[in-house]
Design brief:
The chain is an alpha/beta fold and 272 residues long. The protein has two domains: 178 residues, Spore Coat Polysaccharide Biosynthesis Protein SpsA, Chain A (Alpha-Beta Complex); 76 residues, no CATH class. It has eight helices and eleven strands. The strands form five sheets. The protein has a three-stranded mixed β-sheet. Strands 1-2 form a two-stranded parallel ribbon. Strands 3-8 form a two-stranded antiparallel ribbon. Helix 1 links the parallel strand 1 and strand 2. The protein is globular. 28% of the residues are buried. GO terms for molecular function: glycosyltransferase activity. Belongs to the glycosyltransferase 2 family. This is Rhamnosyltransferase. Keywords: Glycosyltransferase, Transferase. It comes from Salmonella enterica (Salmonella choleraesuis).
């Protein structure tokens, strides 16, 4: 990796970040005056690379992403191997593991409204969508598919982009030769023998609201829409049952349904 573009989304410790990155070779800090959302921040970084750096690819990372040696070169080599087979690669991402138990997450493949969990072996596995963090994307693909959907602000961004890329005929892959730690949700509970991820009331607002946007997009498969409609209601019920502040949870959830129904997206305007 030759260049690192850091988008500071109006962090509370922005001065510390600036001092830490100051003078580091190949690092560019692009501070924002407001929290413009994850999608907009990713687009700003991508656009900066397009306009200022002679690069062929970008890799997206979260602020807490930690990678291992040869992570990037392995992604690049895996992509080249797929392309050499005549595969139209849209993006390739790492495998993820749970840092609490070191268990690998399987690749997710949607078959209508059902999910098939595909365990990773030695070779890349095709997936329905990729998690943005650690994802290698060719700039030509971004030129054809477009950037991230900024209306979503934080949730469903990578899912929407992945499904849009598939509409253009691109295929998405996960490789076991590059891995990252990833925790889903703010906490997890065991329910009927299954581990269920729970999100905060604030985060649930975006998940519920943005699901309405996904339902409106013509390139999102019907099966996915059906599944998300059913499971969003189930997640709300589970979230309500496990929330430490149910009144707050209900307020954010009702606001999410209202904004989603009336098409009001972008940042959350509530502070319950």
């Amino acid at each position: 990796m030759q260049h690192l573009i850091v988008i500071d989304n109006c962090s509370k410790n922005r001065l510390d970040i600036s001092l830490f990155l100051n003078g580091k070779e190949g690092v560019v800090l692009l501070p924002q005056n407001n929290n413009i959302g994850l999608a907009a921040a990713q687009n700003i970084g991508i656009q900066y690379v397009k306009e200022n750096i002679n690069a062929t690819h970008v890799i997206l990372f979260d602020q807490d992403s930690i990678i291992k040696p040869y992570f990037i070169s392995n992604l690049v080599n895996e992509e080249l191997g797929l392309i050499s087979k005549g595969i139209k690669v849209g993006a390739i991402g790492p495998s993820f593991y749970d840092p609490d138990n070191n268990q690998d997450y399987p690749a997710t493949v949607y078959i209508g409204p059902f999910i098939k969990r595909v365990k990773l072996g030695d070779n890349p596995v095709e997936a329905t969508f990729l998690i943005a963090s650690g994802c290698l994307i060719n700039l030509n693909v971004l030129k054809n598919v477009g950037g991230m959907l900024e209306e979503l602000f934080i949730d469903y961004i990578d899912v929407e982009w992945s499904l849009r890329a598939k509409k253009f005929g691109y295929r998405l892959f996960i490789t076991p030769k590059a891995s990252m730690a990833h925790t889903i949700g703010d906490k997890r509970i065991s329910l009927f023998g299954r581990t269920v991820s729970c999100h905060s009331s604030f985060r649930r607002y975006f998940l519920v609201r943005n699901s309405f946007k996904m339902l409106r997009l013509p390139y999102i498969p019907i099966g996915y829409k059906v599944r998300e409609t059913v499971f969003n209601f189930l997640r709300v019920i589970i979230g309500l049952a496990t929330s430490s502040d149910r009144k707050k949870f209900i307020k954010y959830t009702l606001a999410a349904f209202k904004d989603g129904f009336f098409g009001k997206f972008g940042p959350c305007k509530y502070n319950f």
